[in-house]
Amino acid sequence: MSVKNFKFVSPGVFINEIDNSFIPKTADVIGPVVIGRSRKGLAMQPVKVESYSEFVTMFGDTVPGNGGGDISRGENLQSPMYGTYAAKAFLRANVAPLTYIRLLGQETAAGASAAGDASAGWKTTQNIGTDAETVGGAYGLWVMKSGTVADFSNGGTDTGAHLAAVFYMDSGSISLRGKARSISGGSAPFNSTASTNAPATIEGQGIIIGTDSSDLFTLVVTGANKGARLIEFNFDDSSDKFIRKAVNTNPQLLGTAGTFYANASAEDLWLGETFENSLRSGSLIGTSNGLQGVILGIALSGTVATGPHNMLGQASAEAKAGWFIGQDLGSPGDYIPQTQQKLFRLIGRGHGSWLSKNAKVSIAKVKQSSTTTSGYGTFSVVIRDLFDTDNNVVVLERFDNLTLDPTSPDYVARRIGDQYYTWDVTQRRLKQYGGYPNQSKYVYVDMNADVDAGASDETLLPFGYFGPPKFTDITQASCSHGYNGLSDVTPFIIGAVGVPGIGSDTRVSGALGATVSADSFVRIRAAMTGAAVGGIVATHATASLYFPKDRLRVSASAGGLSDPSNAYFGLSSTRDTTSTRPDDSLADSHGLLYSSFPDDPTGTGGSLAGLNSVAGVDSWSYVFSLDDVRKAGSTPSYFWESGSRASSLSVTSGSYTNVLSDGYGQFTAPFWGGSDGFNIRKPDPLYNKGMGSAVTEDTSYAYHTYRRAIDTVADPEFIDMNLLAVPGLTNDALTSHMVSTCEDRGDAMALIDLANVYIPPHEQYYSSKASRIGTNPQAAATALKDRALDSSYGATFYPWVQTRDDQTGQLLWIPPSVAMMGVLASSERKSQLWFAPAGFNRGGLSDGAAGLPVHNVTERLTSKERDTLYEARINPIASFPSTGIVVFGQKTLQERRSALDRINVRRLVIYLKKQISILSTQILFEQNVQATWLRFKSLVEPLLASTKINFGITDYRLILDSSTTTPDLVDQNILYAKIMIKPARAIEFIAIDFVVMSTGASFDD
Q1: Which of 613, 647, 672 is the last residue of a domain?
Q2: Which range, 187-196, 256-265, 824-833, is most confident?
Q3: Position 422 in a domain
Q4: CA distance 886 to 854
Q5: Pairing of strands 542-546, 474-478
Q6: Rounded average pLDDT over 824-829
Q7: What mean pLDDT is predicted for residues 887-911?
Q8: For the chain, what is the domain count?
Q9: Which of 336, 374, 483, 501 is an S-S bond match for 489, by CB 3.0 to 4.6 Å?
Q10: Is residue 92 part of a domain?
Q11: Cα–Cα distance between 550 and 275 in angstroms, integer?
Q12: 240 inside domain
């Protein structure tokens, strides 16, 4: 501090403290980027993790494939997720962080409008046609109580049927088989007691058919794969006959037999969603009176192209919680919940379907303002496990003392974050929007514009939410049987009064595969048309058909809570009103309704006129609000009742603060609408063989997904990396793009895998293990030479190796890039990154160099085969009887001979270039004078000297003076330095002469 800064007025001693002990910030350690699938986590954006435990928390553990289970409802774990193994192999060495890009299905605009593999998502092979029983599509099973059959005749009281399950098919047909219920005869079956010629047992779609004496439905499935067969089932998940145990839930088994599975495994349908939660709410599970059901084809808005059977053209979509709304500040009698002020909503940050399948959000601790200086109150946002209960809350993350005051540090958008990424198609890069950095791992906040501008009422608090959208319920739908010659042969239409159609006489059978008599057809037709045949006068059955929606907590005391004020109104995740067990079917009603569903079906307006309505779809299934909470009794019990505020019966009828003062200011909402954008009909939705050789981004969503992920890291100023790996990707065009991306950056190296070295089951079904070896060393060498891939910024290895999954003990084959990620990390930990990642000291895979246990190789290479590979710049992984499996080469893909045709030298130069670039930023915009030159040299020379001491280089020279930075360059604001290095070379060949000498010879000669 200059003496001029002291103020001297009277005599004294003046002391100022100067701290020059600050430690300059060192550059962050740079690690690799790995691209691949994982069980969860942010997708299509780079996420840095420091340890494998952090990776597991964010992305989940390794996935070895062959996961089985309920794929339709759960996860597709049928193929290995190699990226998770690469992350584990590298992070175990603890030498640097790793950046992971999780993949979800993406598509181009052209691909979205195309067919087949060009589009993300999936569909059944055939749409629902006018003959709904002879083609594929989606079929719903609606269930009702047997005792209500009389209510389904014309003029009766309509109690309705509930959607219980959705089946998907490519071809063939499904129907129910059993006792048809008499349209005119109450609960008695339509059987031989009414007429000797009427069938006792029939089957078909559009016919109301009851369960048998064991309360089992019988499903008739006919198709090309398994022919005609019967499947008995119920909806009791504790039963061996539970529908999800009895019916196939693997959509991958409907593909071409022999592609991913043996012919004997082929199925004709798969079971999609089932709605046990909805059925329990209607007391339709465990009933002793039996049930009735009717199967109807499903389409949307009068078009067979749109519906749950067709999710093609749907890229990954983020789950969201419906808009949270404020309390009613008007007159109770005028209260309409859906017109209340929208405040904000929460949208997933990149999790796809995971969020709607695994999480929910609670608004808690809602409190009105406690000061006179501000009208803003506070509240908490709690992200919870979807399957927890109010008796056992599982918090994933929480944010307390939030406010809707845009000027407050606790503003909800500021505390949680409102930033999100979108992909810029023109510039081919991610663009970030939003003003507040994300603090939540799961969601970002989307604020209502009025609230964000501070233009809304200060007293507003989150009091409720818009429930998920759903298909519109049908009233008075015809539930009869149709066949050729009648007018009712069109498919059942969601969202309009439609008539289910069959169109095929042969689908009404008296026995499996046998057609009933002509007289029986007459009697069935009589039941449809109201004609009198054999003394029976019948009419069409009509009923209301209901689609599932959430069950809400009604009573605060439900579930036996010791303190009812701990209850969260809104979404209930328990099996029924008295249970404390979660319901496994909860997420089935929260999926995306169909491809290209609008982001916000409630629209942007604040009234009903602002709806983004879709024919056949309810923009919300319900609107919940604490304004509808009531209390009753002298020791009051609290319960939710829709419409109670409008009737001036709710706790808030006097003031909205009453329900908060009583301690009931918390509720729960679901996330809905998430999609992974994958073809669920493939074990690996991004498999190499599905892309082909002449593929483009417009003809393959898988190709576009990979290409976009690679382009995400193309900008060195967006993300630091020194390695790039996409384990298991073998498409030539994409692996070449990986190398060119790294070369363009100039600061990273790509590890690529070659095609057909090993063909895993998720790529192609082979009954012979020998068939999985799709090439040989000579062919692989020739193929790589033909690609003319000449670059020191890439490297490849041969063959695949075998590891054991820690979690399951399962053996699996992994691509060599996975093992090499571990070798590079362990080599750096043992020595430095510029040491050769090969040989027994650093490349011994049997000795743990890969970070994963390695037990075998797909091919044992001979000495001649290793020579063939190495000459073609493919690094062999050798297996020796006595010394085990070892990496036996370290060439880059560069054809010309130079120091940079070795991995250790390329890694050394990348390291030095990056570090010197970082050091150089310290003198950027300083004066271009000799003092600055000396400062630059003082920064760089210690790095070069240290590298020399640690055997990275044998010598170096740094020149920065007037001979490099000439006056002309100074005038152009340029500092120009020359750095010359002599890289240390690794020993790859050892030549020893053994000379046998005679006894009398002297060693001194």
Answers
A1: 672
A2: 824-833
A3: yes
A4: 10
A5: antiparallel
A6: 94
A7: 93
A8: 3
A9: 501
A10: yes
A11: 10
A12: no
Which residue, of 645, 672, 699, is where some domain finishes?
672
**Model pTM score:** 0.89
Three-state SS annotation for 788-822: CCCECCEEEEECCEEEECCCCCCEEEECHHHHHHH
Omega cis (within 30) before 308:
no
Quote the tokens at residue 779: 């062919």
Tell me, letter by letter, the H, E, C secondary structure of 234-279: ECCCCCCCEHHHHCCCCHHHHCCCCCCCCHHHCCCEEEEEECHHHH
200 versus 316: the higher-pLDDT residue is 316
| Among the listed residues 458, 455, 452, the one whose alpha carbon sits nearest the alpha carbon of residue 435 | 452
Alpha-carbon span 397 to 416, nearest angstrom:
11
**Tokens standing for residue 238:** 């504790």
For residue 806, give the CATH number of its domain.
3.40.50.11780
Q: Exposure string (b/e) for 479-499, b if CB count within 10 Å is 16 or more?
A: bbbbbeebebbbbbbbbeebb
How many Å apart are CA 275 and CA 744, to the nearest integer?
52
Q: What is the pLDDT of residues 27-46, one digit of tens each?
A: 678 999 999 999 999 999 99
Q: Is there a domain that residue 327 lies in?
A: yes
Phi, psi angles (nearest 5°) of residue 83: -60, -35
Minimum mean pLDDT range among 464-473, 512-521, 857-866 = 512-521
The pair of structure tokens assigned to 130 is 């006018």
CB atoms within 10 A of CB 253: 19
pLDDT tens profile 191-210 = 333 333 344 567 777 677 88
Helices 82-91, 52-59: crossing angle, 10 deg rounding: 150
* CA 478 vs CA 30, 152, 165, 456, 505: distances in Å: 66, 10, 19, 48, 19
**For 696-722, how does the pLDDT look when each residue is reduced to its tens digit (9 = 90+)?**
999 999 999 999 999 999 999 999 999
* Cα 139 from Cα 271, distance rounded (Å): 10
Say how far residue 568 (Cα) sits from the centre of its chain. Answer: 28
Residues 725 and 783 in one domain: yes
* Contacts with 988 (C-beta within 8 Å, 6 or more apart), sequence order: 836, 890
* Dist CA 224 CA 254 (whole Å): 11
The one-letter amino acid at 967: P
- Using CA atoms, how far apart are residues 988 and 992, in angstroms rounded to an integer? 13
Residues 582 and 456 in one domain: yes
The kind and range of the H/E element at 587 are none
Q: Do 666 and 688 have their domain in common?
A: no
* Cα 470 to Cα 468: distance, rounded to the nearest angstrom: 7
Residue 524 has pLDDT above 60, yes or no: no
Q: Where are the alpha helices (DSSP H) in 755-902?
A: 777-787, 816-830, 839-842, 863-871
Percent of the chain as helix, strand, coil, to the nearest 5: 25, 25, 50
CA atoms within 13 A on the CB side of 421: 16
For the chain, the residue count is 1005
Same domain, yes or no, for 689 and 666?
no
Domain region containing 456: 320-469+549-672
Q: Measured between alpha carbons, how far is residue 256 from residues 118, 682, 768 in Å?
A: 19, 11, 18
* Residue 813 shares a structural domain with residue 665: no
- Are 592 and 627 found together in one domain? yes
Least confident stretch, 53-62, 165-174, 342-351: 165-174
> Are both 465 and 557 inside the same structural domain?
yes
- Any bridge partners for residue 35, and if so which? 101
769 with 727: CB under 8 angstroms?
Answer: no
Q: Report how far residue 815's alpha carbon sits from residue 854's, in angstroms, rounded to the nearest whole number.
A: 12
- pLDDT single digits (tens) 393-449: 999 999 999 999 999 999 999 999 999 999 999 999 999 999 999 999 999 999 999
For 736-793, where are the E strands, in sequence order? 749-752
- Cα separation, 169 vs 223, whole angstroms: 9
pLDDT above 80 for 746? yes
